[in-house]
Amino acid sequence: MSSEAKRTLAIFASGTGSNAEQICTYFQDHDNICVQLIVTNRMHAGVLDVASKYYIDAAYIPKLMWDDPENVLPLLESKNITHIILAGFLLLIPAWLVNIYKGRILNIHPALLPKYGGQGMFGSYVHQRVKNAGDLISGITIHEVNENYDEGDVVFQTSVELHPDDNAVDIATKVLKLEHYHYPRVIEKWVSR
Question: What span, in angstroms and rounded, lies between the C-alpha atoms of 33 and 16?
Fold first, then answer.
């Protein structure tokens, strides 16, 4: 793909969409990167409000429909999606989609992988594990997606110091600031390779 080619992003999210909103804001007037689609596996996910706010098409695809490419692929093709960005998407990306978009799916994880990764390690569960372990550093890992949870090639990591008195909510707040600042910027660089 040439450096001049338009990059069209689909954001996959399961929750409120705070990262999705940061990404949409960042690319709103970008010359050659735009968010074309927001996909969720939850009917009432807050990220649907983000899609509405930014006039971006949205789709709800329930968990049971992800095994069949015909339930997902035509939608991505109709929007000419070049890259998929996971922003709090809690389903494992099916192997068929990983293969089609190999090297073009990015995820953000709210810890310093390989620590605290894998199935069930998301959101407050991660931050509570960091707290329980007594770690005084946490951070974010942005990585490419393969067939396993949180095991793709690391694209970017950064950390933040924790205070011994920080609880899981405090840790989450510090980590989320890193996510909101760095994720759009790393996406921009990554999709422009």
Answer: 23
Question: Is residue 1 one of the residues assigned to a domain?
Answer: no
Residue with tokens 């293969």: 99
The rounded average pLDDT for each run of 10 residues, N- to C-terminus, in the chain (193 residues) is 78 97 98 98 98 98 97 98 97 97 98 96 96 98 97 98 98 98 98 95
Query: Prior bond to 62 cis, omega within 30?
Result: no
Phi, psi of 40 (to 5 degrees): -135, 155
Q: Catalytic residue among 44, 83, 109, 127, which?
A: 109
Would residue 109 show up in a list of annotated catalytic residues for this protein? Answer: yes
CA 125, distance to chain mean position in Å, is 17
CATH number at residue 103: 3.40.50.170
